[in-house]
Amino acid sequence: MHTAAEAVYQDVLRRNPAEPEFHQAVAEFLHSIGPVLNEHPEYTEHALLERLVEPERQIIFRVPWIDDNGTCQVNRGYRVEFNSALGPYKGGLRFHQSVNRNIIKFLGFEQIFKNSLTGLGIGGGKGGSDFDPHGRSDNEVMRFCQSFMGELYRHIGQFTDVPAGDIGVGGREIGYLFGQYKKLTNRFEAGVLTGKKLGWGGSLGRTEATGYGTVMFAASMLATKGQQLEGQKVAISGSGNVAIYAAQYAQMQGAKVVTVSDSSGWVYDEAGIDVALLQQIKEVERGRIKEYADRKGGAAYHSEGRPWQVPVDVALPCATQNELDGSDARTLVKGGVRCVAEGANMPCTPEAIEVFQQAGVLYAPGKAANAGGVATSALEMEQNASRSKWTFDQVAAKLADIMANIHDNCAETAAHYGAAGDYVLGANIAGFTRVADAMIDQGFI
Ligand code: GLU
To answer: Which ranges carry the Glutamate/phenylalanine/leucine/valine/L-tryptophan dehydrogenase C-terminal domain (predicted)?
Structure first.
């Protein structure tokens, strides 16, 4: 690690104890930016890096709510407003039992560079709660969301901070959150949240964007080697919003997706995942992936192991952080994998990334490959601000352009710094320089 970056990292470890995922995200970033710090020593001046790793604001609050038995439950809410150099804080809300300050900080830190890579005017932030919507009734979810917004509303706004969905937060939750924001502020401020439903300010294509964008990025990487997605065998993990639309778009491109998973197990479907059935089980019935295998002839359910044991050409981890480790990566490499694009945030461990890079596998970090979701959120904000509504094809064309630009920017940046093909280095440096230049322009704040 560059000596200036190493000093910053030691400080991060000392000042943020017991936050391993945050340390991991910062370490990956600081490892990558050495070459640009050598070329531009001004980036090591005026505590620029020290400011970058310190969130501008961290909000932690109590979320009390009444469950269906009339019992009061207490959860903890978070919003980490990490960096506003490029625009209002922007990033999702995650509702999952694993959420704590460490998780929200790692996600918020990644979001700064992801949002920068989109080329749009959005800063980085993230939030959420240790509330788990699974198994909760709609009314319980509504009461939780109303209580959560009862505090969050004073910190957000279309020009301040614009939350959206992430794990456990979809159109239903965004609806309840928006309703409460509108009631508390007496404003129909459409651009305060993204991922809204289509009838009241949502954008066509937002639901599909993260998964579609991830597959577009994988296709761009393959194209650099003269290969295409058509005819390739693909393993996907997860079965939420990102996984479903990654599977749909990969199959639209002529690939065959053979796996999906949830936290209890995974499904192998040699014939190719039936996306309509997957949508019915996950989006309509809010069921478990085991039901897919129960209903689809020829599909096998495994409660042990991970999808990565299947020999495939392309792997798209779309579940959660650190879900693919060094041993999974070695298994995938042995099985012939040639391309890995992260639909989730930080799903590959540092050891897994090293295995892929040493084996010459095309590997794209989430901050580049899954940026299509937040990019389309920014397109939703643009439509809200201009009170217009674009067609699906208009949004999809813009998404395709943005993903192609991110790919080329990462690839060209990596090549410029003598690391052709290293998308981790390319994404981190390209994301960093835009934020760093804006921070320098805006003074020591
Ligand atoms: N949660 C998504 C992400 O990780 C989307 C955020 C957004 O749309 O603001 O980028």
So the answer is: 203-443
What is the rounded distance in angstroms from the CA atom of residue 112 to the CA atom of residue 22?
13
Distance CA 341, CA 221 (A): 9
Which pLDDT score is estimated for 65? 98
Among protein residues, the one whose CA lies closest to atom 5 of ligand 1: 374
> What 3-state DSSP class applies to 93?
strand
Report the nearest atom of ligand 1 relative to the CA of 162: 9
The alpha carbons of the chain give a radius of gyration, in whole angstroms, of 21
Task: Tell me whether residue 342 is exposed, middle or buried, using C-beta atoms within 10 angstroms of its C-beta: 0 to 12, 13 to 18, 19 or more.
Answer: buried
Helix, strand, coil tally for the chain in percent (to 5)? 50, 15, 30
On whether the pTM is more than 0.85, the answer is yes
- Band the pLDDT of 445: cuts 50, 70, 90: confident
Residue 241 in contact with ligand 1 by CB distance below 6 A: no
Residue nearest to atom 8 of ligand 1 (CA): 374
Q: Is the CB of 343 under 6 A from ligand 1?
A: no
Residue-wise pLDDT for 266-275, tens only, equals 999 999 999 9
On average, the pLDDT of the chain sits at 98
Distance (angstroms) between ligand 1 centre and the Cα of 164 equals 6
Ligand 1, atom 10: closest residue by C-alpha: 374
Q: What is the pLDDT of residues 287-329, one digit of tens each?
A: 999 999 999 999 999 999 999 999 999 999 999 999 999 999 9
Give the per-residue SS3 of 383-438.
HHHHCCCCCHHHHHHHHHHHHHHHHHHHHHHHHHCCCCCCHHHHHHHHHHHHHHHH
Q: Is 47 helix (H, G, I), strand (E, B) or coil?
A: coil
Task: Walk me through the domains of the chain, giving residue ranges and CATH numbers.
Answer: 1-54+421-444 (1.10.285.10), 55-185 (3.40.50.10860), 208-364 (3.40.50.720)
What burial letters (b/e) apply to 14-29, b meaning 16+ CB within 10 Å? eebeebebbbbbbbbb
Each residue's pLDDT tens digit, 222-232: 999 999 999 99
**166 CB under 6 A from ligand 1?**
yes
**Ligand 1 center to residue 7 CA distance, Å?**
30
Q: Provide the CB-side half-sphere exposure for 99 (13 A, CA).
A: 28
Determine whether the shortest distance from the Cβ of 374 to ligand 1 is under 6 A: yes
- Does the C-beta of 118 come closer than 6 Å to ligand 1? no
